[in-house]
Amino acid sequence: MKNQALVLSAVLFPVIGAFLLPLVGIWSKQWRNWLAFGLIALPLLASAALLPAAFSGARVLCFIIDPLSVFMALVSALIGLIIVLYSHDYIDHYDNQNEYYLMVVLFLGSMMGLVYANNLIALYVFWELTAIASWRLIGFYRSPKEVLKADKAFLVTAFGALLMLLAFVGIYQATGTLELTGMVGLTLPVSLVALIMAGILTKSATLPFHTWLPDAGVAPSPVTALLHAAVLVKIGVYVFARLFLATFAVDAVWHTIIPALAAASALVAAGAALVETDIKRIIAYSTVSQIAFIFLGLAINNIVGVVGGLLYILMHGLAKAGLFLSAGIIEQNTKTKDITLMGGLIKTMPITAIAFLACAFSVMGIPPFGGFFSKYLVIAGAMRSGNLWIAGAFVLGACLTILYLLRLFVLVFLGEPRGVVAREGTPLMVGCVALLAFLSLAATVVINQPINYLMKAFGHADLGIGLLFRFDHFGLFTAGAIIVIAALVTLYSLVFMQGKESIGQFYLYLWLTVIMAVGAALANNLILFLFCWEGLLLTLFGLIYIGGQHSFRTAVKAFTIVGVTDLCLMAGLALTGFLAGTFVMGDISLPVTGWPALAYGLLLIGALAKAGAMPFHSWIPDAAKDAPLPFMAFVPGALEKLLGIYFLTRISLEMFRLTPDSSLSYLLMIIGGATIILAVGMALIQKDFKKLLSYHAISQVGYMVLGIGTAVPAGIVGGLFHMINNAVYKSALFLTGGAVEKETGTTDLNKLGGLGRQMPITFACFIIAALSISGVPPLNGFFSKELVYDGALERGWIFYLLAVGGSFLTAASFLKLGHAAFLGKPAAEHQNAKEVAWPMLLPMVGLAAVCVVFGIYNVLPVKYLIQPILSAQLLAGHHFYGLPSNWLLIAVSAVVLLGALLNHWYGVKKSGQGLGAVDHIHYAPGLHQAYDLAERKIFDPYELGLKLVNALAWLLNKIDRLIDSLIDHWTVKVTEWGTTAVRWAHGGNISAYVSWSLVGSLVLLWWGLR
């Protein structure tokens, strides 16, 4: 009896109460508004009270209480309640307010009836009630344009609904019942499934019936949030789940057709979003694209995808409602929806901007926002079902999601104003947007509750998402190194960051980075690892963004490159978990052949991008100019190498079995060798202290990748040793550059010189770190490079030559840098430069000391830090500390370093200055033209990728416009032709009527006799 009262109150109170709102509105607007709020709060409370009975399957009249209905009712009522509250201020100065609240509450009440319906006719009635309410709400402003768009939405969805009704009639004729619980397990004919899908696809705005949804953006923003982002389009996917997951059995072919259609919808809509300039149409196209992810999860017929799809309904609803309501604040305050007229709004609308960004991150699937889990589970489900090409299409769609939402955020909120000024919205409106952003974030804390609820709904145990850590030697060592270097950078920053803007944000992002990085290093669960790994995206964006006035472009570039590669990593982890049958990293052991090779390749992309290897490197030199220097010392200088190479080692030696004879081993060595030469070649010609070091941060990772890629003991030990050494000397070098910048105000080498006398300790630290990175004995860089040389030579002389050639160019560039900055005549404007304060000196001195100790006593890092990582079988009784065993290689290295010294002497003599020491290389025939092209970013993969994306977006948008033309123009034409034919056939001529009757009678007679 209690459950019956709760269900009926959830449905009938808002449906009946909606018609009282205009009467109350005549008396008091305020009472009407709060009555509307109460009429939506009641279904929310009633549905929450039904949670204990959700698994009972109880039936109340034509309604059912089960996990699916209660879950969807809670999602719809929660989002609807926030939107109604937001409407109190948004809609306050418009006409037709009484009708607005009537239709909003009627819509939400109808939604309650639909989700609880256990009867096909009840489902259809409430389905159509939502269509009527949405029709009136889309045309709320009553202008001919809005009415036309409302009519389009109504006609498209009504057409699909009529086809679905025909299917319901067919089902009743076949079964003699309308109760869904009486049809469980029934297999429907293809024709009936097709008719039902027509209704579902039109309502959910899926290709090719999607074009009504962007057009519906003419409605008020709360309407677009409620009907076309949070609730209305979810009706289609809910009914799909109700009919084809919980009730009917479906032919297997639909599990291929629907995902393929969803993939096309996701890509076409994302392409259209990339070229749109109307803020609400962009968000609407995003909805079309994201609904496709839900369809993918529900249609691939495995529990991981199904749970991901249903969870997506909740996460997407919260985030997308936040985006639309933010757009409403922007539109009301700027009086425009054109994003090309906006810009810089974060300065006047900071809360809205932050909430918008948080909701956008959730839609992108970036941790720690809840959208991460739903997106991962959907892609993992697609991988598990074997639909790898479909999963690949959705990974591409997820990449496009990052691009169009970042584009939207940058054009609206960042940069300088481009024509409009605005202020923050009302406290109530801003509070609703902030609440949705908070809920998108807070969902992560309790994510296991909805996941386990949905798993139980389909009779399965939990997915195994938990805080599963592995405290082994490698993970603890990597985490410890990250913490130590972060502490040194923090000490250094106490002085360096004094007086800087956003200093509080810097420390927040810095130590959030440490927390996420340590979590990734110690994680022993694929989902936990990915959560921590991708969480670094947010802090990366923040640390670069606070660097300066124009740093947001670099922040966006870094976020895009790393975010796209992280999606590849997500797909790789999903495929790995499926192939291994477990999410536990320590239990995974796969060969590098067949599908496991694809999984390894996807994971490799994520590892190389995190480490900063080519071709995922191009944001690092830009960050050197725009980001705070301590960021460069910590993230590109140390953290990314430690974490990226850590993961590369994990996947190459543990999760997969990389062997010297495999093609992937050769691929790694090629990438490593190319990264060494190309990056150091760019470092050679730089005229800025930090930018030169940034290219070396890229080049040095090449030695690590090359060493591990050899898959032989010497190379692997050398690569890992170089990982440690690079973190030490590269951080030291960046910190010396920061000291120079602190005292002189510049890192432009043209403006520096003679600082060695004024900053002797900084100069000494620079010399030690520079000699170490150049591979000069007895410093640590010498020993790790010799091991990499040894391993490379064992695999092929070409790889050895690339490594040695890189060392020559490294030494040449640091001779130039040291000479230009610290030797020669001091610049007149820097006569007062002096040594920096001890909090800045201490980290530099400590790191320089480690370079010496880890070189002379290399037994300490090799024996106690590195060799315990490797198996005894791999080491085969060898130890790799002490003096190198191959004296011939040492002799070659000595010759190379001597050659670099002679090259510097020649260059200085020819150019007359230290800064020109490599000009004869820079301007050599052939090289000069190549360098010019590189400096113009002709070879920048990011720039090339953007051009490719623009071309793809143009093509996809043309497809969308063609479909829109077919619906807007040709369906009208066909209808006109049809009505003309009917009019002609029924022209009032008695002879024509007799003829039609005779022909019809003959056809019926023939049919009966046949």
Please explain how this structure is put together.
- With 1010 residues, the protein is mostly helical.
- It folds into five domains: 1-242, no CATH class; 252-464, no CATH class; 466-551 and 570-657, no CATH class; 661-939, no CATH class; 946-1009.
- The chain contains 41 helices and two strands.
- The protein has a two-stranded antiparallel ribbon.
- The radius of gyration is 32 Å and the shape is elongated.
- The chain starts with a helix and ends with a helix.
- The mean pLDDT is 87.
Please outline what is shown here:
The protein has 41 helices and 2 strands. It is mostly helical.
Major beta sheet summary? 2 strands, antiparallel
Q: DSSP helix count?
A: 41
The domain tally reads 5
What does the average pLDDT come to? 87
Distance between the termini: 57 Å
Shape: elongated
Strand content: under 5%
Q: How many distinct beta strands?
A: 2
Proportion in helices:
over 70%
Classification by helices and strands: mainly alpha
Biggest sheet strand line-up: 1-2
Descriptive terms for the model:
5 domains, mainly alpha, elongated, 75% helix, single chain, two-stranded antiparallel ribbon
Q: What secondary-structure arrangement, pairings included, does this model have?
A:
Layout lengths: L1 H16 L3 H7 L1 H21 L9 E2 L2 E2 L2 H24 L6 H20 L3 H19 L5 H32 L14 H14 L8 H4 L5 H10 L1 H13 L9 H22 L3 H21 L3 H32 L15 H15 L6 H14 L3 H26 L13 H16 L5 H10 L15 H24 L6 H20 L3 H20 L5 H30 L13 H18 L7 H8 L2 H27 L7 H22 L4 H21 L3 H32 L10 H4 L1 H15 L5 H16 L1 H26 L15 H19 L2 H8 L5 H4 L11 H25 L7 H4 L4 H9 L5 H45 L4 H20 L1
Antiparallel strand pairs: 1-2
